[in-house]
Specification:
This protein has 189 residues and is an all-alpha fold. It has eight helices and no strands. Helix 6 packs antiparallel against helix 7.
Length: 189
Amino acid sequence: MTDSELIREIKDGNAELYAELMQRYERKIYAFIFHMLKSAKMEAAVDDLSQETFYKAYRSLQTFREVEASFSTWLYTIARNTVLSELRKQKHIKVSLEQSGMTPLAQAELMPEHTILRNEKVSLVREAINNLPEKQRSALILREYDQLDYQEIASILGQTVSAVKSLLFRARTSVKIQLEPYYMDTIFD
């Protein structure tokens, strides 16, 4: 059953099917919220905010119109707004990506120094992403970690597709500039 068919059934009164819809997206939404909360040291709130996201989505499902956005885009938007609202409540301004299980895994090397260097590189990249403005950071996370297309990201962030492309270009350029000193030092060593 597709998302659209499930949503139609749920809107027609078969509320039990919402559990199936939740199950399809709970890991992605959890990971997205975790990424946004990590730098604020609010990882403990991930479960609550994930549940709140799905609760808000359920409450508003009757107003969801598929012609405006896909369900996943709509759900990511609710998750993002829920997190930003919580961060404002907690007076944490910076939303960032820190260590998580979403890091692409490199092949395990036998030499310990390879592991140390890899971990250092991962930390530097995460720090560079954390230094980005919120919209650039969100766009980059949605594109690179969640593999969403430009249109979905535009809908989630309330931007045009061209604005998303611009945000991603600026984010990638900024990360590259922040990492240049590290790689230049490595070249000359």
